[in-house]
Amino acid sequence: MTFLKKNKSNPLIRLAKNQSEQSFLIISATFCSILNKLFDLAPPVLIGLSIDVVVREKSSWLASYGFESVPTQLLILATASFLIWTAESFFEYLYGLLWRNLAQSTQHNLRIQAYNHLQKLELSFFESDSTGRLLAILNDDINQLERFLDQGANQLLQLFVTVILVGGAMAFLAPGVAIFAFIPIPIILWGSIRFQKRLAPKYKDVREKAGDIAARLSNNLGGMLTIKSFATESWELDRLRLNSHSYQRSNRNAIRLSAAFIPLIRFAILFAFLAILIVGGLQAWEGELEIGIYSFLVFITQRLLWPLTTLGHVLDEYQRSMASTNRVLDLIDKPIEISGGSLRLEPKNVIGNIEFKNVYFNYKNRNNLLTNFNLNISAGTTVGIVGSTGSGKSSLVKLILRLYPIKSGEIKLDGIGIDKYNLLDLRRSIALVSQEVYLFHGTIEENISYGNNSASQKQIHEAAILSEAADFIEKLPEGYQTLVGERGQKLSGGQCQRIALARAILKDAPILILDEATASVDNETEAAIQRSLSKVTSNRTTIVIAHRLSTIKNADKIVVLQEGSISEVGTHEFLIKNQGVYFDLWKVQAGAN
Question: Which residues does the UniProt record annotate as the domain ABC transporter (predicted)?
Fold first, then answer.
């Protein structure tokens, strides 16, 4: 993915730094896991002590503390067993609760962080990556990490505690026998590290392939109309099948490697168990090793080595989650190219004078679109911008909204560079009706009031009237409560555009930008919208980008663009008389009519 960085930091360390505010929860969960494992390892000790009591009676280890009666010693061991089992169960409940809470809160925090950061990134970022991949990160990758924290983290921690505690106890009680239990551990650790290194890139590839599938599905679901109209269902199914097979192969390669890990560990454990069974048994038979200690060693060897069989599964989960963690944190760490200034801006105080001064701009990896561009838009005027496709009309709008960074020069609002203003304040001062209308899944009322949740129903209805949307809305069975469907698919293009216009009108910003706002309406509706706009545009700066020249015929000034440069400026009458580019465009459209 284009935003991934070659970050050398361990993903676990990166995650801990990112979630530092949860350090108390992490420490508490870790503490409970350790205590649970301590109590979990106590039963083999109790078994060894009980055998010691039965075999040695009054000379047992407990008898040395004054408890000479065998029944008393057994009662003490029974009481200790009850307390230990109770404590183990209690801390198992606590660590389960704490780790799951940590998993859920981390999942929530990362998703909110990632999405919040995503919203702050410039538009060029979204042009260089796919929606499906980003959705895979925000959902699949974060869920993968949640699954590891829910169970895998505790398993890994308890495995480490087991090796340290049991290994230490065996070395202290019978170092000559314990050595046989330690021999397999370096083999297991070496194998684990080797497998971990080989698994890491494989699971990174698995996550990439999962992102490819998500991207394919997202694109196809969004373009279902095109797929059906071109009858390409079979072709798209084949393309998805290729992506799915690629994901399957990638997963199969990772699984094949991880599955080979457990049999290796089983043979290592078998060697250690047999060695302790024979060597320890001979020493106990010859009286060199106490029966209780020998019993403890036989039981505890299983507790030491058998959990290592889960190491493959735990490392498998760990590698999957760390690959996902890196993808999520790489997204969060992606630098923001456009940041707002510190100067606050109240929309009601905006005069509305806009000036492009010696602006140079190009899209990433392309030649300059604007070169030494200069344009002044006076406050309170309506300026029409026309030109052929690719001349830079819509780019001017994106630059005013600071959706892209300029290469050099300055864009000023009321005499101050727009980069000096708080970014949200700047955008609150501008109402945009884009040529690509986007309606959110919800009611018509919710879409008109989007961004202005405090608007009253009266204000919403007035905005609908001004945009010529009220008539068709009131004819719908559920009126303003009608669901528009995802991306407004239940409405026509013209209806969607009028709702988007109503949304901009309700925003009541001092600057209004219409980017092909009447492109999808019929001539009669366009004329009605023009009448409404004459009221809406009064006392505010209005920029109208139009393909239909009739839309900007009454503008105070018309700017004609050609390949990012201004070729003509003037009123409609002046440009017609001038018989330049605008005249040719007008003649073509008039002839077409």
Answer: 354-588
